[in-house]
Amino acid sequence: MLPDIVDVARKNGLVISDRTLHSEEVLCKCPFCNEDSKPGKKRKFYLSLNAQSQLFKCWYCGESGGVLRFIALLEGVPEEKVRSRYRRSHTTHPAERLTRRQRLLLGGYKEPDWEAMKKRDRKYYLRTMDRLWERWNAFLESERQEAYFLLVLGIRFGKYGKYVEQIRQREKQIGASLLKELLNIYSSAVRPSWTEKVEAQIDAFGIKTRKT
After folding, report:
1. What is the count of structural domains for the chain?
2. Mean per-residue pLDDT for 49-66?
3. Under 8 Å CB-to-CB from 29, ≥6 apart: which residues?
């Protein structure tokens, strides 16, 4: 099982924003560029940790990746060394739980013989699984933002039932839950930073609609 990215940040002494600690998106001071640690930026937190997908990204310097890369950068060691620390031959990789349909959503490529790959070169197989899992989580993040757009659009323009049904249909298509999480985000006092961008798009959409 992969380590929790927020726990990794704590163990390495990163400065975490208290107001985001129990949110899906946890904000920290970036240890890679240290831009948000400069004088006058006490309230700035550029490093985003996604506690659900185990991904990180600094919105200033652009450093990003999964939790194992995060550990490697913090410790100053090769990522492969970190991978070998957490892998066990009997461990099921989370990407192995993806259905064939979900994998095809990521690009529509021809499926390799996964079992043959695993037997031939297990390290290569696990690296492939890592990349597949990161791509799936990036895909889900995109789906989440699109569904949030529909949810807020429905609430603001009185078409809640219509857009909620669209979100539910999309959930069936991708085989993943969206609506429950988005309702929790919308009703939360502290929302992930990406929701501001989505709601700004809706505000602009509303202005354009009124003009036309």
Report:
1. 1
2. 90
3. 14, 15, 36, 37, 45, 46, 47
